[in-house]
Every structure is written in structure tokens, then in C-alpha cells.
Amino acid sequence: MSMSGAVDLSAVKAAAEAKQKAEQARAQRAAQPEGQGGAAAGVQLVIDVDEATFEQEVLQRSAEVPVVIDFWAEWCEPCKQLSPVLERLTEEYAGRIVLAKIDVDSNQMLFQQFGVQGIPAVFAVIAGQALPLFQGAAPEQQIRQVLDQLIQAAEERFGIVGAPVAPGEGGEPRPTAPEPPSNPTLAAAHAALDAGDMGGAIRAYENVLADEPANEEARLGLGQARLLDRVQGADAQRVRQEAADRPDDVAAQLAAADLDLVGGHVEDAFGRLVEAVRRTAGEDRDAARVRLLELFEVVGPDDPRVTAARGALARVLF
């Protein structure tokens, strides 16, 4: 990770002042009485941020601690896989980073300001400077490496080290996650998915569905795992170029549609496959149709974009 691509944000002072500001903030916090922002006061590590609170919660805090930004949306299934991992790691880093969660549907100005191309997308802000970290869901080990590099860069370049907190001092608790599944095979499938072991996750979800064909959680997890398994290691530039060069090649369109969806370009993925169904026949057409139905399941049947794409598919088929 390099700071060379950082984008200056005009709402804060130059990065050269960051070290002094961080030291002043730490000194002020340490001097305050306990319970009034002093060293023992609770520090909220995972925060929901909107356009109104962005300057205070992100820009100003970035002078004291690296702020990681998670751009997400309720309809984005890969976001639902990534966000819990980011939240857990933020708590584990115990004050060396802060996680700011931004719902892109409610904060389009911030979405555009950062030049986000698709979600989930993860950025960082250090001393008022923003830099992209990664886009799309990623294995936990890779995320951990990126965060380690971010923390190192913040300390070496700006003297920003955060404010370490002890366990239990992470501020007001966020809503607790649902209870873990009672089915141990389903729990193992979820764990494999979080760890980036897509093969293990697929096998475990399939085992759950063999015993419980109506298990909605396993069905959704299997769709996500298969999608992420297909895009692992893909050369995105090559895949997209092949899809552009060979519009009648169904395999090329399927691969590009998978990348579209993982990158948060839901409508692009659906439109690409509807067009593939329209242009082809026989086995190729059936392959495009089946993949489109699989992606519908990943996004969720109640999503309005799924409803629209179902209508487009019906018009092409009938």
C-alpha cells in the first residue's frame, strides 16, 4: 500500500500538521477527568457515519487514529459478508483503527466524492487524506494484512497511533449479531466462508441442504460461496476485455457478470445476462438463464432490481 495515491480533502489542514494535532489530542484526552473523555472513557470503535457527521467523525478523528470507511448498502450481499469481518477486526485492533460505516443509498454525495465504483468498497482516511484500500469481499487474512500496512503507514508518515483501549472499553455496544446457528455444519459453513475457504464452505452448505432442503440460510450461503469461488483469482481486466470482444461467448459473459455483481454493479450483471439470453439459443441460452436466476438468489428476491430483471428476462423468453 502506498500513500502516493492519497487524495487531499479540503476540509482539513495539511498532512504536515497531523503529527502535532495527534499529540495535542492525546494530551488533552489524557488530562480530562475519567468519564469526561479522559483515558478511561469509552471509545466507540465502530460508528455509523452520514454526510452530516462525516467531518467530525471521519476527518477530525483521522488526525488521531486511522479511520477505515466501509461503503455498504442493505441490498448488497457481499457487503453483508465483509462488514462483520471488518467490525470484528476493528474490535480486535483495540483502538489502533476506527471503522466508519457509510450507507451509500443514504449518502450519495460521499459515495461520489470518493469515486466509489462499486460496493463493498473500503477506504481509509489518515490526517485528512483519503486512499482506497480494496473493493469487494476479501479473505480475512488479506484484510488483516492491509490493516497492518495502514497502521504502519499512519505511524511512520504521520505519527498517528490511535488510542489503545482495553477489552470492554469500546464504547456503546452496537446491536448484537444474531445468535450463531445451532446446526454445527451450518456454523462450519459460515466460518469457512468468512475465512475465504470457498471449497469448504460450498461442501458444508451442500451437506446442510442435503438434510434440510428448505434451509434458506444455507441456500443463500451456498449461492454466495459459489459466486465468490468463481471470481477468486480472476484477472478482472482480462475478463472484461474478453466479454467486450466476444459478446456472443456465453462463458465470457457469465464470468463478467460474476465480477459485476461482486463489485456491486448489480444492474450491469443482470443486464449482461438478460442480453446473453436474448442473443443465444439452446444450451448457451439455458446456461445464461440459470446463472441469472442464481444471481437473483444472491441479491435477494425482494430487491427491486431483481423484480425489474425478472420482467426483462420474461420479455426476452416469451
UniProtKB/TrEMBL annotation:
Q: Give the InterPro entries listed for this entry.
A: Thioredoxin-like_sf, Thioredoxin_CS, Thioredoxin_domain, TPR-like_helical_dom_sf
Drop me one GO molecular function for this one. protein-disulfide reductase activity
Give positions of region: Disordered: 164-183
Q: Where is the Thioredoxin domain?
A: 16-152
Q: Which PROSITE patterns match?
A: THIOREDOXIN_1 (PS00194), THIOREDOXIN_2 (PS51352)
Name the CDD domains for this protein. Answer: ybbN
Q: Pull one GO CC term from this UniProt entry.
A: cytoplasm
Q: Name one GO biological process term.
A: response to stress
Lineage, top-rank taxon, reads Bacteria
Alphabetically sorted, this entry's keywords are: Disulfide bond, Electron transport, Redox-active center, Transport
Family as reported in the entry's similarity comment:
Belongs to the thioredoxin family.
Question: What name does the UniProt record give this protein?
Answer: Thioredoxin domain-containing protein
From which source organism is this entry? Streptomyces xiamenensis
